[in-house]
Amino acid sequence: MKAFLILEDKTVFSGTSIGSAREVISEIVFNTSMTGYLEVLTDPSYAGQAVCMTYPLIGNYGICHADMESEKPWLDGYIVRELSRVPSNFRSEDTIQHFLEEHDIPGIAGIDTRKLTKILREKGTMNGMITTNADFDLEQVTEKLKAYKPTGVVKKVSCTQKSVLPGDGYKVALMDFGAKKNIARCLNQRGCQVTTYPAVTSAAEILADKPDGIMLSNGPGDPSEVTDIIREIRKLYESDVPIFAICLGHQLMALATGAQTYKLKYGHRGGNHPVKDLQSGKVYISSQNHGYAVDADTVDPDIAEVAFSNVNDKTVEGLRYKNKDIFTVQFHPEACPGPQDSNTLFDLFIKMMEVKKHA
Amino acid sequence: MPKNPNIKKVMVIGSGPIVIGQAAEFDYAGTQACRSLKEEGMEVVLVNSNPATIMTDKDIADRVYIEPLTVPVLEQLILKEKPDSLLPTLGGQAGLNLAMELEEKGFLKENGVRLIGTTSQTIKKAEDRLEFKETMEKIGEPIAPSLVVENVEDGAAFAQQIGYPVVLRPAYTLGGSGGGIAHNYQELVEILENGLRLSRVGQVLVERCIAGWKEIEYEVMRDSVGNCITVCNMENIDPVGVHTGDSIVVAPSQTLGDKEYQMLRTSALNIISELNITGGCNVQYALHPTSFEYCVIEVNPRVSRSSALASKATGYPIAKVAAKIALGYTLDEIKNAITGKTYASFEPTLDYCVVKIPRLPFDKFISASRKLTTQMKATGEVMSICTNFEGALMKAIRSLEQHVECLLDYDFSGLDHDDLLHQLSIVDDRRIWVIAEAIRKGISYEQIHAMTQIDVWFIDKIAILVEMEQWLRTEPLTPELLAEAKRIEFPDTVIARLTGKTAAEVKAMRKENGIIPVYKMVDTCAAEFDAETPYYYSCFGSEENEAEETRPEKKVLVLGSGPIRIGQGIEFDYCSVHSTWAFKEAGYETIIVNNNPETVSTDFDIADKLYFEPLTPEDVESIVDIEKPDGAVVQFGGQTAIKLTESLMKIGVPILGTKAEDVDAAEDRELFDEILEQCQIPRPSGGTVFTCEEAIEVANRLGYPVLVRPSYVLGGQGMQIATCDSEIVEFMNIINRIAQDHPILVDKYLQGKEIEVDAVCDGTDILIPGIMEHIERAGVHSGDSISVYPAQSLSQTTIDTIEEYTRRLARSLHVKGMINIQFIECQGKVYVIEVNPRSSRTVPYISKVTGIPIVKLATKVIIGETIRSLGYEPGLQKKADYIAIKMPVFSFEKIRGADISLGPEMKSTGECLGIAKTFNEALYKAFIGAGVQLPKHKKMIITVKDADKYEAISIGRRFEALGYEIYATRSTAKVLNENGVHAIKVNKLSQESPTVIDLLLEHRIDLVIDTPTQGRDKNRDGFMIRRIAIETGVNCLTSLDTANALLTSLESGEKQNLTLVDIATI
Fold it and tell me: CA-CA distance, B489 to B237, in Å (whole number)?
């Protein structure tokens, strides 16, 4: 079946429908990872977005359910150049075609994904529609696209109930704004007992459970939108519990302490972004997925300092809070997909909790 | 960290002659690194014995020494030049080994030279089998159970313990020389004995056989503060068991999930960190196909063939970055030259798929075994880029120039189901064609996988290509089917074959339906950033074309020479690159088309635009359609480019320089004979034939011996000297295995002195930089002969005649640019035997020794200048102050079963130069450079054919005078002894022990002189003796002329102090 991708700037791509045939409007972004398509599909941070994979051959190693980063794919749509007709890997349990259908994810294949990427790079992230209806009215569609704004995504992807991953080490409260599974796994592997809380949990409730540390997770959407959550995070900031935050969590902590965030032209999504630890001078290759960033100029130097910065565009990649056991990163030390170079940051968090506990 | 201010003068060691396992990639890496060092203000001293390289140009380094790569020479050079640093990681294994020796003996320290880019500890940890194993164990990286042995007994005992099959890997050898898989005790003994001898340190690793696992490689970079990145990973389609240099390789990996990909990536970073490498490194893994188990196979702590491939596959300039790291820079301080925006501390990401196919020399060595093993056999490789795997594979296949353009071209259709299953178990270079046939015959993926261990994903991709063949055969050719066939890169010619249309009809249908390729950029970042460097590949079925036509005042298309093969080597890349530079200098916008990832010409900053594409008429035409160049130059890209002349003209691209019809006139026998007649130049008489019967008739008319050869080939491919009718039949059959578009030539064979000239002609005047004379008589291919400049033994009359003939020929052929002519002087008369109106393999060497930039002059002449306007006096130029001797270098030990005897078909893979004020010193240097370091044990074997017995006496006498103990087979011994040369008779192979073979296996023999019977050698003894000599590392000469030259060199005594010549001052 034919499918079309229509962009806000009136560009129309025609290709083949994959997954669900239903029509969808979404924000279109691109991801440059060469492996890890299933992790991308199931990363809740993509809620409200349709993802274009720049690597042209997708589905080569099939679907291994153990690699899913959440219970299901959260993205609105999937855009690829080519899906492999035969998956080959000893762990493969399914084909990507079937997986998309099963989860009702609409998508389009067979388009010039590089052209699409260049449009997004030049003009910035924009909205688009994936449809199998060939009789669309371009004017009407673009009107609709311009008016579209995804909202409420954090609450959509967050869990609704508290859950506990047992461990005999430190007690970590994980705030689930759309957490990738590997965050809890990384902590659990280090012995932590990880309690996951819904995004809307109050600070008082979390602090009442007396965690050794608080982990603010990644998640989707515009960080400045979730003012209620930011208010609670401010309270967590004011507690003296060690806090480690990733991606959206990092942005929310910055917002909670008076800094501002802004939307990047086309974001950072991929597994090859160099971030520099400004203290050691060391560069890590990191996994990233974010459309917003913390504005360094708005960070109050008395509150926090930039700890990591992006080597390519110098954007803020991490903040270290002053007189607090808090550090936050924009990138993903939990990887999945992507390089594991910065995985040691979890050890740093463990160390923080250890120091605190024995202080 | 900024660069180290104490580094000011850097010595760089090149990799020496091109041999299998160490080829053009090191010229690419070395050239890029030297340019990068100079960019940083370093004074660069370069040493490399290979004159065909671009790195040995005075434009590339400040001081250039084309000297033998030995420890004494390097010591002498260090004392002379006093560099403060030595960068050894760019010269392949050869460069690294030499640096290690200098470091180990304390010479570097004594002379205040620091090793940069690596340390001796790093090299040891990575290269010494035992230290490597300990290092890997220390950081918990798994390696296959193994033991380093220094004798056969220990090896056999360990193999018994871990179980056969076992893999044997000698330490410190290149291209896996002497390695192999042993399935039983006998094989173990055979391979192990050989490997122990070839290893520099007499060590061989015996390890668990992991054949059949996935072979995965990572290219990693690390700087001095410990920042690491991976440039890319690559997956070998051929599982472990085939040397990676002989495998079809795809980048990035296709069948690895993120978990496997990151597991190995993290491992590679751990390894490079533990080895403390500053620069580039290659890590090879075996990954179990059905678990997460993996083994580290090997680490190369230097730039390598794989790093050249990774550089071209991603756009990330590994050698350039490695050189900057060696100077002290960190990755985040080095700009990514492709994007101009990002930094070197960034991992390239691909939005396309890259396939590399090795170029194997079995068309040259038809008697050799095609079996692929852990011993590398490829002389070169091609790379292709496409947005899908099928397309990349198809593009790579047609880039090989081996008469294959699709998966039908090695025909296995005659095999039935069982034969095919058996054929699938044979690991050779035609395996993907066998798989295609198996799919056609309905053999299941699972069965194919079971026989080959090749991943099902790749088998399915081959099946997609086979299905398309079937559709094209049976379905009507609709625009949709055509578009799909083009998307997976079926060339028009193949579509035509399968649909019964003509290629022109297919092309017309494509154009009518808008099915044309677009060009995409290789930009390191999958379009995330705007890139500055126009490095393109084509694909069908995409919308946006990124290669916009530019409209400069003048634009030229330079056609490259494709994969490195015997007969068409790195020399042609030298010519293409220099021509490109000369065009640039003259204000042209330059475009290079080539498909060889190992070369300088495909570096991103050589031409203004680079198209990484197959060199076929269709592929080039599509580029022309976009670029609309003012002209194309074909005379620098060897036969590959020349072959494209006709199709370029057809599509209206002017050929710059010598016209196509004149090129034809030189190749077309009848036209050429007319020209010779007009010019009153004699040539050996001959005729043109198509069939065997015609050939026999011509041969009998001329009288044997005769020379039989196809036209339009390079390197004397298929050329043979026939002495009787039955040999004519044999040779004609070999030539006609491939359909010949052009007639086959049969000429009277004259045994005289061979002379070669390269000249530049501007239409009126000629410039001859010098005359070269071959040591070996005619009959040995010029590429395999020792060549001497200036000619030493020619009379003034002969020299004048040669100059005059060159002038007449160049004018009659209306040559504009380069011409290469080969002459024979026989009984005082000069004959022309071959004219090539193009650049030749001697051009780089003669340019360097005379200091005359021939390619540049030829290019300027092509665009309208004259020899006089360029400041040169026409005619034969004054002799240079130096004598330069070009010595061929062979890779026979790598090709099991190849006949090493020299003849009209070229067999050498590379060359080195000896340059000195005197003939003897130049000759000595040339032999040393080629690895002929005698005497050692002062024992030799002589076995010559009857016709050579008389000449063998004086050779024997001279060796005897040098103190040699001579062994000879029965009849040779008899002649020697009768003439007062003491020779010990040894038995032939069929006789009782001790035979010649036993003697060779004692490892006490310096040299074998074995002249084969004329024509193809059918004497199994001779063949066996030569093979065993080569495989046991004994020098073996098959021409008495070479033996005489060696004697001359030995008699002049060992040179303690060589005069080292800085060719930058010539």
Answer: 19
Give the residue, B779 or A158, on which the prediction is more confident.
A158
pLDDT tier for residue A201 given thresholds of 50, 70 and 90: very high
Nearest Cβ partner for B349 among A34, A39, A61: A34
Q: Which CATH architecture has domain A2-150?
A: 3-Layer(bba) Sandwich (3.50)
Residue B559, SS3 per DSSP: strand
Q: Looking at the predicted structure, is the pLDDT value of residue B196 above 90?
A: no
**Which residues in chain A are classed under CATH 3.50.30.20?**
2-150
pLDDT for res B677: 92
pLDDT 10s digits, B671-722: 888 999 999 999 998 888 988 999 999 999 999 989 888 876 666 677 888 8
Burial B333-343 (b: 16+ CB within 10 A, else e): bbebbbbebbb
A65 a catalytic residue: no
Mean pLDDT of A219-235: 96
Superfamily name with CATH number, domain A154-357: Class I glutamine amidotransferase (GATase) domain (3.40.50.880)
pLDDT at B1019 over 60: no
Binning pLDDT at 50, 70 and 90, where does residue B1048 land?
Answer: very high
Q: What is the mean pLDDT of residues A164-173?
A: 97
Query: In B329-413, which ranges are E strands?
Result: 353-359, 380-386
Distances (CA, A) of B759 to B582, B636, B804, B874: 17, 13, 12, 10
- B428-454 core/surface letters (b: 16 or more CB in 10 A; e: else): bbbbbbbbbbbbbeebebebbbebbbb
Distance from CA of B557 to the nearest CA of A (A): 27
Structure-model confidence comparison of residues A282 and B342, the more confident one: A282
How close does chain A come to B216, measured CA to CA in Å? 15
Please report the domains of chain B, with CATH numbers, ordered by start residue. Answer: 9-116 (3.40.50.20), 145-209 (3.30.1490.20), 356-515 (1.10.1030.10), 519-656 (3.40.50.20), 657-684+750-880 (3.30.470.20), 932-1051 (3.40.50.1380)
Contact between chains at A67 and B457 (C-beta distance less than 8 A)? no
Residue B305 identity (one-letter amino acid): R
Q: How confident is the model at residue B162 (pLDDT cuts 50, 70, 90)?
A: confident
Q: Which of A57, A121, A139 is nearest to B544 (CA)?
A: A121
C-alpha closest to that of B528 among A344, A340, A54, A81: A54
- The interface predicted TM-score (ipTM) is 0.97
Instruction: Read off the pLDDT of residues B362-388 as tens digits, 9 standing for 90 and up.
Output: 988 888 889 998 889 999 999 999 999
pLDDT score for B1015: 45
Burial (Cβ within 10 Å: 0-12, 13-18, ≥19) of residue A264: middle
Structure tokens at B238: 């051929």
Q: What are B363's two structure tokens?
A: 């068309």
Amino acid at B632: A
Q: Which residue has 């100029």 as its token pair?
A: A297
Q: Residue B994: is the preceding peptide bond cis (ω within 30°)?
A: yes
Cβ separation A117–B530 shorter than 8 A? no
Instruction: Tell me the C-alpha to C-alpha distance, in Å, between residue A216 and each of A254, A295, A349.
Output: 12, 19, 12
Which of A4, A32, A280 has the most B C-beta neighbours within 10 Å, making it the best mutation to test the interface with B?
Answer: A32
Q: Does B290 touch chain A (CB under 8 A)?
A: yes
Helical packing angle, B843-850 and B854-862, nearest 10°: 110
CB–CB of B21/B176 below 8 Å?
Answer: yes
The two structure tokens encoding residue A356: 């605190």
pLDDT at B715: 64
Whether A247 is catalytic is yes
Both structure tokens of B709: 């050869």
Distance CA B195, CA A223 (A): 64
**DSSP code of residue B931:** T
